[in-house]
Design brief:
The structure is a single chain. The chain is mainly beta and 135 residues long. The chain is 9% helix and 38% strand. The chain has a 5-stranded antiparallel sheet with strand order 1-7-4-9-2, with no helix packed on it. A 5-stranded antiparallel sheet has the order 6-5-8-3-10. β5 and β6 form a beta hairpin. The protein binds dTDP-4-keto-6-deoxyglucose (T46). The site of dTDP-4-keto-6-deoxyglucose has 10 residues, from β2, β3 and β8.
Length: 135
């Protein structure tokens, strides 16, 4: 499984750091939505789904967390602990977010607006989805 992690360019000077992200430039798609999660409770596992048609970039801009990526054949755990690192998550990747530090803020850039019908929340349905796609 290929894990695509972007390392963004921080513009640092004696005042601190600034990271700027532009669609099609730093983010490889048009950004139609941005959301973030924080105050995640201890031992929480979020996600547990895939998407039919949504690309995302996940950036843990404060604290740390881990992302499990599962393409139906292989699983990988990717730590996110730097505010200048972005993890690309394709639609057809089952994802789980866990091991959040108490101060974690996970920011997400999404290629589509929110659409509940785009979610695949059943793991067997996901396996069918990727199996059919890979035929
Ligand atoms: C994903 C991972 C990385 C909205 O109303 N609008 C939104 O844009 C989103 C993302 C969520 N919601 C509502 C739907 C639920 O009532 O917020 C609540 C929590 O959403 P959810 O349980 O889907 O959150 P996560 O953390 O499990 O998953 C989210 C995204 O939904 C998902 O697309 O890939 O983060």
């Amino acid at each position: 499984m290929q894990v695509i992690k972007y390392v963004f360019q921080p513009h640092g000077d004696e005042r601190g750091q600034l990271v700027s992200l532009e669609e099609f430039n730093d983010i490889p798609f048009q950004i139609k939505r941005v959301y973030f999660m924080y105050d995640t409770t201890k031992n929480t596992v979020r996600g547990k789904h895939a998407h039919k048609n949504l690309q995302q970039i996940l950036v843990c801009i404060h604290g740390s967390c881990k992302i499990l990526l599962d393409n139906g054949r292989e699983k990988k755990v990717v730590p996110l602990e730097k505010p200048y690192e972005g993890l690309y998550v394709a639609n057809d990747m089952w994802r789980e977010m866990f091991d959040f530090s108490s101060d974690a803020v996970l920011l997400v850039f999404a290629s589509e607006v929110y659409d509940e019908s785009d979610y695949i929340r059943d793991y067997d349905e996901f396996l069918k989805f990727v199996g059919e796609k890979n035929k």
